[in-house]
Specification:
about 600 residues, alpha/beta, Rossmann fold, 6-stranded mixed beta sheet
């Protein structure tokens, strides 16, 4: 049986009943989440700051944050937040004012965003891996009233300062103990803040659920970044969905977060989960495979925040002495592939995988309340999975011009209904927001957020992620899921990691499958004849990659996403890099030379 069938689990009533005991014990948290979800409207006077303060009052002496060898209790962390908030007020920052923040992963990033949350300000969290034109674009998109730059990244800012044209008086540095302060001539915001009160900031205006608090930028893998708006209401819905309902951390838990805090998985999902449980959070400067288990042992972390690629790195690594008997029992994140899910849980002895589905800009979220394997969970938001034509890249419409829902257990495009309760905050650029909305979906006047993702209905309001549109391609009249093909390739001995995508071939319709992969550390080559046999045994013929590209490494963005767009453009042209390229011709993978490349494009071979 092909591998792709073995991961397509459907949810049964028995699955849910067996998980009920673990859900019932956390019923008070779940009921609170339901209350927040249904009682908060866009006009509600509720804020991130007010919710955080409840946790501070309940757990003042609990550890809130750990970084390197420092730690803060909730009381201490709140006091530090208040000093920054009062400083912001003194500088004239009020509701709606934007503060652009560029710094590496460290506590100050969280302190600044929370201080702004208390006074209605907006933190534009700039991707700290950006440089030059992309960095310039992100700053201009924020249109900030104040600019805060980590001392460790000041050189990156100085390079674009003249082009930005911001007044020097709005620019401040934020100290870093590893950077000599005398090299920077700008004032240090955090040092000046030490003179301000630790008392709660006093404001004379209302903060409502609909008010924005964060700008979180997309990775920009297919263009310049866009700034997604995170309102107070969306943060609180995250608090409810991920913290109170998803992972359900307790006050004794310690969540290790090696993810970038300019991204929503860390700043919203992980942070709200910690606040919801009165737990502690470890901020890691950046993910390090070699330091992961040492850190888990050092902090005695009971949970960690993940993205799927981190899980693959850990699974591909040799057994670490400290991974045996580790303290982790829970994990929260997204992108854990169905085919490695049980293997990962068994090897690292994980009890709960709080997989979720959400996007920085979207209005829909799924969360794995019942801790069922291979699902991104279920949702209480209104959604639809509609039939989609991947060959022509558009939804399939009925005779009246409306979209059609997939049948039970079917796969299609995921849409989130836009309503008063579940608004679409979108991007800072209105034109970009409108492009993500589809209207008149099932009736005249309705509106849905287009996630751009293909998902599969698993039953009982549960779904399974299939692919990002553009990643699923059509070849020989059949849809090919890149995620499923990657899962098969990664099982072949000697292959550490793979990326699958479709490439255009002259004189052929659709896109031919191409796989780019790297070899495991102990392998200098693989047997391509055996590889082809393995592919044919586990995949239907149309899904077997027609082209291969073997690289020394696979580059990713700072949020661990692969830049498939570049790979698609380079395709199978052996002149584009020093990598080894192969084509499936006459039943065997043969190396592509400039001559073979021209012959493929000339239609000499039948793929």
């Amino acid at each position: 049986m092909p591998k792709e069938d073995r991961t397509k689990k459907n949810i049964t009533l028995t699955d849910l009943v067996l998980k009920l005991p673990s859900v019932v014990k956390d019923l008070p948290k779940i009921l609170t989440a339901i209350y927040y979800n249904y009682s908060i409207t866009p006009e509600s006077e509720v804020s991130i700051g007010s919710l955080f303060l409840k946790t501070v009052k309940k757990y003042p002496n609990n550890t809130c944050l750990l970084y390197l060898d420092k730690k803060w209790t909730y009381f201490e962390f709140n006091a530090a937040i208040n000093r920054l908030a009062n400083h912001f007020l003194k500088m004239g920052i009020r509701k709606g004012n934007v503060v652009a923040v560029l710094m590496e992963n460290r506590p100050e990033l969280l302190l600044i965003s929370m201080a702004l949350a208390k006074i209605g300000g907006i933190a534009a969290l700039i991707n700290n891996s950006q440089k030059h034109k992309t960095l310039q674009h992100s700053f201009k998109l924020a249109n900030p009233d104040l600019v805060l730059i980590g001392a460790e990244l000041f050189e990156n800012y100085i390079e674009i300062e003249a082009e930005l044209g911001f007044p020097k008086k709005i620019t401040y540095a934020v100290a870093n103990q590893n950077v000599l302060e005398k090299k920077i001539t700008y004032p240090f915001f955090d040092i000046e803040s030490t003179h301000f009160s630790r008392n709660e900031p006093v404001i004379n205006f209302k903060i409502q659920s609909k008010d924005p608090n964060l700008y979180i930028y997309t990775s920009g893998t297919t263009g310049l970044p866009k700034a997604a708006v995170i309102s107070h209401g969306r943060w609180i819905k995250g608090y409810s969905a991920f913290g109170l309902t998803g992972i359900r951390l307790n006050s004794s838990d310690i969540l290790y977060v090696p993810l970038p805090f300019f991204h929503a998985t860390a700043m919203v999902v992980c942070w709200t989960s910690v606040v919801a449980g009165g737990a502690a959070m470890v901020i890691k400067n950046k993910f390090s495979l070699s330091e992961f288990w040492s850190d888990i042992d050092k902090y005695k972390a009971t949970a960690f925040g993940y993205v799927g690629e981190i899980c693959k790195y850990l699974l591909n690594a040799e057994i670490h002495p400290l991974e045996q008997g580790n303290t982790i029992t829970k994990m929260i994140g997204n992108g854990l592939r169905p085919e490695i899910w049980p293997i990962f849980k068994k090897r690292f002895k994980i009890d709960q995988v709080a997989e979720f589905y959400a996007s920085s800009e979207g209005n829909i979220a799924f969360f794995n309340l019942f801790n069922i394997d291979a699902t991104m969970g279920f949702t209480i938001t209104n959604y639809a999975i509609v039939q989609y034509d991947t060959e022509n890249d558009k939804p399939i419409l009925d005779r009246k011009g409306f979209m059609q829902k997939v049948k039970s257990k079917g796969t299609g495009l995921l849409l989130g209904e836009i309503s008063t309760r579940y608004p679409f905050d979108g991007y800072t650029e209105q034109g970009k927001s409108e492009k993500s909305i589809v209207r008149n979906v099932f009736k005249k006047g309705d509106a849905y957020f287009n996630t751009g993702d293909l998902v599969r209905d698993m039953g009982y309001f549960h779904t399974q992620f299939v692919d990002r549109l553009g990643d699923t391609f059509r070849w020989k009249g059949e849809n090919v899921s890149t995620t499923e093909v990657e899962g098969i390739i990664n099982e072949f001995e000697g292959i550490q990691e793979s990326i699958v995508y479709g490439v255009e071939v002259p004189q052929n319709s659709g896109r031919a499958g191409m796989a780019n992969f790297i070899l495991s550390e102990n392998f200098k080559s693989i047997n391509l004849e055996s590889f082809l046999v393995f592919m044919e045994e586990n995949l239907p013929n149309y899904a077997v990659p027609r082209f291969l590209r073997i690289s020394k490494n696979l580059s990713t963005t700072s949020t661990f996403k692969y830049n498939k767009q570049t790979l698609k453009v380079e395709a199978y042209d052996c002149a584009k890099s020093k990598d080894a390229y192969y084509a499936l011709i006459n039943g065997a993978y043969i190396k592509i030379t400039p001559t073979i490349f021209e012959e493929i494009n000339g239609g000499k071979y039948r793929l």
